[in-house]
């Protein structure tokens, strides 16, 4: 009887200690700070219900196998369309629907980029974090966000594997472009054309891949420099890397191929050699920094540079 009376309390005590350890482990994960666009932030608890407005964040969280409960009305990236089937629409990437958010009652709301201006509003519904990726050092920020999400949802190992996969993709693409000439990045918006240099939002392509610039003095502003077709002809790049903004946002405007199909562009080395790369528009423009989106962009560039010439 005595041994029994001792054994049961001991067993219960061990169980209680185990439970306490589990609770402490969860608390440690939830209390860990994650890097955001506004600095390190401590998340109140492990999020079970997530609402996400940033497409790059949605792309990365989906790559980690995280279920997202609330998404924007339009996801832009074809590979993400399947997420709508199991989620509630809680606004757009520009304007969260606060009523829909309140009904969803998320544990955490992720904003970024276009939705980052609504951080204060969404914070009135639930804890919110700004995970904007600026593009100045896109790959480093993309990996930091990936690691942060891994910590947030307890998928650190999966995040580490994806970081390694991304690093390998960058290395393979860097090897593919080496010694094969310079490039000029253009974005078309209907009939308009802008150019982007090393210091621009798309400059990471040049820096990360060691890809020489066809023009060294392109204005390094966020939205690039408005250029003429004469500018493109005079630049005479070996390669053109083209993003179609109209295709990215689904505007239905004149597409990039039609815009660039003229005598001046046709006279460039890039055009005459068939060295014009049309990157996945939504991946490059809307979901920039999303892990899978970035890998698809790298794969497109790598594939083009790897073709026999």
By CATH, the architecture of the largest domain is named: 3-Layer(aba) Sandwich
Please, how many domains?
A: 3
Taking Cα atoms only, what radius of gyration do you get, to the nearest Å?
24 Å
CATH homologous superfamily of the largest domain - what is it?
Nitrogenase molybdenum iron protein domain
Would you tell me which CATH topology of the largest domain applies? Rossmann fold
Q: How helical, in percent, are the residues?
A: 40-55%
Strand order of the largest sheet: 10-9-8-11-12
CATH class category label of the largest domain: Alpha Beta
- Molecular shape: globular
Q: What order do the helices and strands follow? A: HEEEHEEHEHEHHEEHEHEHHHHEHH
* Mean pLDDT across every amino acid position: 89
Low-confidence residue ranges: 1-30
Number of strands: 12
Please report the distance between the alpha carbons of the first and last residues.
Answer: 87 Å
Count of helical regions: 14
Q: How does the major sheet shape up?
A: 5 strands, mixed
Q: What would your notes on this structure say?
A:
The protein has 309 residues and is of the alpha/beta class. The protein folds into three domains: 1-31; 32-162, 3-Layer(aba) Sandwich (Rossmann fold); 180-278, 3-Layer(aba) Sandwich (Rossmann fold), CATH 3.40.50.1980. The protein is 45% helix and 15% strand. The protein is built from 14 helices and twelve strands. It has helices at 2-31, 55-63, 98-104, 119-122, 138-153, 156-177, 204-209, 229-235, 245-249, 256-260, 263-266, 269-272, 281-285, 291-306; strands spanning 33-36, 39-42, 50-52, 70-71, 88-89, 108-111, 128-130, 183-189, 192-196, 225-226, 239-244, 276-278. The strands form four sheets. The chain has a five-stranded mixed beta sheet with strand order 10-9-8-11-12, with helices on both faces. Helix 5 runs antiparallel to helix 6 (156-177). The protein is globular. The chain starts with a helix and ends with a helix.
